[in-house]
Amino acid sequence: MISTPVGRPGKRVRKWMLALALAAGSMGLLAGELNELRFITEESASLNYVFEGKPHGPAVELLLAATRHAGSPMTRAQIEVLPWARGFRSAKQGPHAVLFSTLRTPEREAHFQWVGPIGQERDVLIGRKVHAFSFTHPQDFHKYVIGALRDDAAAEHLRAVGLPDENLVLATQVNHLAKMLHAGRIDLWAFGEGGWLHVLETTGLDERLFEVVHHFPSRDYYFALSLDVAPALVAQLQTAVDAVLREHGDIYKLGLSHQSSTPSSPTTAVTPATTSEIITKGTHHELD
């Protein structure tokens, strides 16, 4: 029999110990606490943003209050702020992720578990005032080159109304789209009604040069949980969110109760991407 030096487990033993540790960690999450999940958000002026290096905004306050109500309190430091496209991919892949604030759309329905609704917003098309735009039929969109964030609900809506891929420019950084609109590289920019002015401000562009030229229908925001999150945790978070919203009326009133420590117009930019990124019509590429 081959002996193994004391204090150094054999190869099979080490594999067994690793498997046991991974299984224990997985079981802990499946049976465990809301505050053990991975929380991901983006920089968006209406619901979630960064101020003095920490996440703030009505959706952040709702999440913090809901986890406290559920007896599993989390901290702001646990919330990752990522560009939308990267955060969306991370949450969709998991493991054990919560992405907010996420518009619930038919295209996304089967990819997440949903807690909410927590608020509403509608996407808009922004154009330069020097041009005249008119939209009567969905086909009218086809006359223009339109920019949107990759994996954003606005891009999904544009595809749903039949916008050809060659007319759709996708980016991972929203300030890139604002600059492209200003430079005339795109005709229109699709984004949330509550956030586009803030993007212009933080990008250093004059808002007087731009205007909303079309409104899409309003849709509901949710917390989107990856499919591997235990149903019991999903139900626990839903119950807690419902309780907090009943107490405060709506998410925006909840946010107002924290205005003494948060700005009315946040100015800190989103965490920058760590990869080189290029923007192309209809497709997004990342270079390692």
Key terms for this structure?
elongated, 26% strand, 32% helix, 288 residues, ten-stranded mixed β-sheet, two-stranded antiparallel sheet, disordered N terminus, alpha/beta, 12 strands, single chain, disordered C terminus
The general outline is: elongated
Secondary structure category: alpha/beta
State the helicity in percent bands.
25-40%
**Helix and strand string, N-terminal first?**
HEEEHEHEEEHEHEHEHHEE
Tally of helical segments? 8
Could you describe the 3D structure shown?
The structure is a single chain. With 288 residues, the chain is of the alpha/beta class. Helices cover 32% and strands 26% of the residues. It has 8 helices and 12 strands. It has helices spanning 11-31, 58-69, 84-93, 153-160, 174-183, 196-203, 231-248, 251-256; strands at 38-41, 49-51, 54-56, 79-81, 97-103, 113-128, 146-149, 168-171, 188-192, 210-225, 276-281, 283-287. The strands form 2 sheets. Strands 4-1-5-10-6-9-7-8-11-12 form a 10-stranded mixed β-sheet. A two-stranded antiparallel ribbon has the order 2-3. A hairpin with a 1-residue loop joins β11 (276-281) and β12 (283-287). α5 (174-183) packs across α6. It is elongated. The relative contact order is 0.19. The model is unreliable at 1-6, 16-29 and 256-288 (pLDDT under 50).
